[in-house]
Amino acid sequence: MTAASDLPVLAIDVGGTKIAIAEVSGDRIANRRQAPTPRAGRGDDLVAAIADLAPKTGFGAVAVATTGIVRDGSLTALNPETLPIEDGYVLASAIERVFGMPPLVINDAQAAAWAEFTLGAGTGFRNFAFFTVSTGIGCGLVIDGRLQSGANGLAGHVGHTRSEPGGILCGCGRRGCLETVASGTALARAGSARLGRKVTTPELFAAAKEGSGIAAEIIAGAVVALVDAFADLAASVDIDCFAVGGGVGLAGGFIEALQVRSLDLPRVYRRPIVAARAGADAGLLGAAMLARPKSYDENFLQK
Fold this sequence. Notes:
Elements: E1 9-14, E2 18-25, E3 28-36, H1 43-53, E4 61-66, E5 69-71, E6 74-76, H2 91-99, E7 104-107, H3 108-119, E8 128-133, E9 137-143, E10 146-148, H4 179-182, H5 184-195, H6 201-209, H7 213-237, E11 241-245, H8 246-249, H9 254-262, E12 273-275, H10 282-291, H11 295-299, E13 300-301
Parallel strand pairs: 1-4, 4-7, 8-11, 10-13, 11-12
Antiparallel strand pairs: 1-2, 2-3, 5-6, 8-9, 9-10
């Protein structure tokens, strides 16, 4: 009889636009599939979509990485524009009813940070931050070798720290969050307003490459905001290295621009800024690793 620890982990990654599911053994991903994320605002619809996508047997554990704040297995969207769902939706209990075993549920950026720390750009560091700069901005922190969540699940939500006082109203309810300045959504919004036509983030980068001073200025503003956030974290918890991923983060020339801008900081705040290496499915990998026996208790610091 096969022990549960020898079976793959069923890993589920819930984002604002898609749900991805895979079977993870070690650092290997198999049978990956995905579907659009339901946007009706009901957690039960989300779980139904997961159930339709996933196998029901053949795995030894279930792990869920999701956008939003996770506290005691319940999910609340810090920014409902990213994932509309009821506050405090009991995601862990709903997933357990579907698969017959209690899942690990963790924020997706935190899960990806653990994969990067263990398998990717964070290896060899003790204090590490992973930033995904995409539609929104997510961050996961590993401090003294342990992944941080916090008693309320809020640790690492640097995208919702203040970047531009009095700035644009963020979906979280604050004004001028980093996400309103440096995310893909923010770049597309600013580009459309200043160029006088609707542009996507890739189109904004293309315009900058073709010589548009306005496009280059908008992207440079995001770079400045992110580097300032890195410096704030370095001052707060003495991060050793920043890894950057996501569609914006890995866009051509963006990390190099972050590195150049960081040279303007006083030396005490400068840290290595590198490209993330665990890949687009880092959330699946990190959640699966944390779901394995003892890993969660040993490596995941909630308080």
